[in-house]
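hey so i finally got around to running both of the ones u sent me last week. sorry it took forever, my laptop kept dying halfway thru and i had to restart like 3 times lol. anyway pasting them below in the order u listed, first the sequence line then the structure token line for each. didnt double check formatting much so if smth looks off just lmk and ill redo it

first one:
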Amino acid sequence: MKAILFCRVSSVEQADGYSLASQKTTLEDYAKKHNFEIVEIVTLAETASKDTQRKTFNEVMKRLRQDKTITEFVCEKTDRLSRNFSSVLEVNDWIKSGDDNRLHLVKQNSVITNKSRSDEIFIWRVETAIAERTANNISEEVKKGLTQKSVEGHYPGNRKFGYQLILKEGKKVWEKNPAEIVWVIKIFDLYSQGYSLREMAKKLLNLGLSNKGKPLSINYLQTILTDQFYIGFFKWNGKTLEGRHDRAVSPALFNKVQDIINGKNHPNAGKRFFAFGKSLVSCNNCSHSLVGEIQKGSVYYRC
């Protein structure tokens, strides 16, 4: 009998020493005991994105449906297989599609088949509901914690270039990264002096700041230049909040850069070529005006 083994572990359990490897061993021992031929072992960490998790699960179900010779689907327990009813229904449909198809929940000592009693099916679905509720509750608590953190002035999002998380008085807080913050200041200074984003990317590359040996992207540089995080503020849940982290640049320099970006005050304004006139053409993505520049005899536009 051919089998697919399905392993899933959360980041919390991994931290506690419960790894995908140990779960895999448990399922392999079970398969060996029952003389199953293992055709695939699927491992999935819940740190993966929801899209990745769903894609992996869909691929497993697709193979089970297409390959009629695979009759054994082995998982440690219900909450390892799924934490939502849509997945349960898919597995249930697969079970019903063949008299030999069986779902093995190893630690629950349970095997769900087309001939399982109604109370066995009921218990399986109740356990799924409990797993789904637990997952939703964890998600809610995480969101509450992040919101509270933001209210206290601590940015709860992803790392910003120029900063690093450190543990201070029992809390993780943002502090300047000495090796990166000098580059942040340099980026603001260069742009305020009249460098275009493309010119600045080349300049930074020559000075030693690159993306794996290539110039930083224009979008990345513009993201830095327009981010209020660098003057002590951050956005969270649609609100602009004052942070407790130290500023990277002065508000005066930041505002000067914003004026240049918005076309209000550019040091090299006289050198620019406004083919259609200021503010007549705007970007569909950010609504900023498109500026025409002559590069090697051709006109290029950017917002």
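and the second one:
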Amino acid sequence: DLPRPERIYQLVVDGLPSEFAPLRTLDEQEFAEAARAALTRRRYRRRIAFVIPAAVLVGAAIVAAFFLTRGSGGITVEPNSVAIIDPEKNAVVDTVLVGAMPGPVAVGEGSVWVANLEDRNLARIDAASRSVVRRIALEATPTGLAVGEGAVWIVYGRLGTVSSVDPQFNVVGEPIDPGLPSAVRGSVAVGNGAIWVAFDTSFLVRVDPASRRVAATGVVTGDGSSAIAVGEESVWVANAVHSTVSRL
């Protein structure tokens, strides 16, 4: 569940053990597939590429209706790209190269927004031209993304903070820090006149979009909050550890 590759070092000191058991990892089959994926990534790295996560394709299905349809089937989706799916044809009609290790996707303010985990930036896609018109640098790895209340909202899971991007000037605002324990993941949703942020430490934060301040914090029943949505006059939080959904 690391958001990005990390180097591991072994320190050898005279008089101390230097032989250890293998690092805990996936089972043999999954490990072999991960190794093949890593080797494939190296071939693409010169083009600033990474293996495209399945979540991007799912996100692309959500934004498909936002794009004008063009072309027909038979299109290959390259790594680090967003696929544009025509829901009527049920086929990929175009792709947009966005950046290294794309993650959350959101639509709003006249654009499609993609958070790139490896590049630590936000790619802004123009729907008409199907091209990236701006890449906005971020202060950390983005783990959540939503658009609404006149801004683009980004969550940095490890920092436990939230930032807003002004879509008019493509400027990142000052981070909003709720002062909660450190987390790994964070997700965000917009609705009912508020910004809702869920961290995998089971904390839920409500941000006032006008003042850009934390309005309230609480605890969600269930561990490992991994996704959040607003609808039906409720806030819904998916809890990965307990395999439950909390309704607030």
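quick thing i noticed on the 2nd:
Confidence is low (pLDDT under 50) at residues 42-73.
anyway thats it, ttyl
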